[in-house]
Amino acid sequence: MSHISSSRRLSSGFSLVELLVAVAINLVVVVAAAYLYLGTRESQRTLTERSSMFENGSYALEMLGREIENAGFYPTIGNEGATKANVVPEYGNPVAGTPAAFNAGIFGCNDSLFQPSTSTCVTHTATPVPPADAIVINYFTNDSLSLDVGQRADCQHRAVDADAANAVRAGASTATTGRKPTMPLFISNRYTLVPTTVNIEGQTISTFSLACNGNGVNPQVDTYQPIVTGIEQMRFRYGAMSDQSTLQPSQFLAPADVTALLTIPVGTGSRGAWGRVVAVRACLLVRSMQPARLSRTSYTLTDCNGTSQTYSDGVERKVFTQIFAVKNMLTFTYGI
Fold it and tell me: Which of 173, 240, 243, 294 could disulfide-link 276, Cβ–Cβ 3.0 to 4.6 Å?
């Protein structure tokens, strides 16, 4: 009889209390696993967003720096003969009417937009208004390679042969024939910020993008092509040589101050206004596209205007700044 009672107790299963305890334990495990997953996912997303922000900022600054260092370049082409030795020509304005924006390798617009169709600085017309300067970078090339491997294209990957300023310079050559142009081709790339809307995971994000406009078209158009998103601010300041004794800048100036500079003697010639610029300080304020701060508390940073800004939206931001030498703007160098 006792054997039968034991069998009945064993086959009766869990009691209600035991079942509730088991469910509670399983629930705790599931909730803990969910929190662990969500926390890991949030941490991973934060790392991804921050990584993308650093990558975008570094790429944008590197691209601008590479262009700035090309400013004012003219290929070493000279005449060799019994009566004339090899010479190294200098940069010159090849555009009809010689607009001031192309008198030197560098030109800038302060808190405004460069309009290629008129070759002037104009007020930003986009909404919202980009907190950005514009920079114009001019140089020459005698590259006979293709658009994909050479330096014959503008920043929009268009052959600069099409520019009216290059009509005579290009001669019978094209970007794909492998023949050099009759004279070095003029390249002018312009950069600013434009408003951009991005959709990520069903969320609409309004920001600005670094954008470019190149001279590989005739007539010149005013459309800028976005390149890098998440650039909230862009400022340039220009270091102009104080005199020919050092060829170094004493301070970094806003565009209006550069335009007002007087002409100074340099070597056997002279330099005035934008021709005196030998360095450019570029500053970018870059943001993550989604919230990327595990702590949602506010934080403060100093932006490209030198203004202290406080943010509490959870979006990560960083200021990228660097000074680039405009080495092609120097006509000669001093020995060490």
Answer: 240
Question: What would the pLDDT profile of 69-91 be if each residue is shown by its tens digit?
Answer: 999 999 876 554 555 455 556 78
User: Does residue 35 lie in a domain region?
Assistant: no
**Cα separations (Å) of 185 from 71, 110, 147, 214, 267?**
14, 28, 13, 13, 26
Q: Convert the pLDDT of each residue in 87-127 to its tens digit.
A: 556 788 999 999 999 999 999 999 999 999 999 999 999 99
CB 46 within 8 A of CB 292: yes
pTM recorded for the entire structure: 0.84
What is the Cα–Cα distance from 283 to 303, expressed in whole angstroms? Answer: 9
- The Cβ of residue 248 has, within 10 Å, a number of other Cβ atoms equal to 12
Is 4 a domain residue?
A: no
Domain coverage including residue 55: 41-329
How big is the chain by its Cα radius of gyration, in Å?
Answer: 30
Contacts of 122 (CB under 8 A, 6+ apart): 112, 113, 114, 115
Residue 52 domain-assigned?
A: yes
129 located within any domain: yes
Nearest CA to 320 out of 283, 280, 287 is that of: 283
Q: What CA–CA distance (Å, rounded) separates 55 from 224?
A: 22
Residue given tokens 């101050």 in the structure block: 257
Rounded Cα distance between 327 and 68, Å, is 9
Residues in Cβ contact with 314 at an 8 Å cutoff, skipping those fewer than 6 apart: 291, 292, 293, 296
Does pLDDT of 209 surpass 80?
yes
Amino acid at 15: S
Separation of alpha carbons 71 and 67, rounded Å: 7
Cα 192 to Cα 135: distance, rounded to the nearest angstrom: 7
Indicate the number of domains in the chain.
Answer: 1
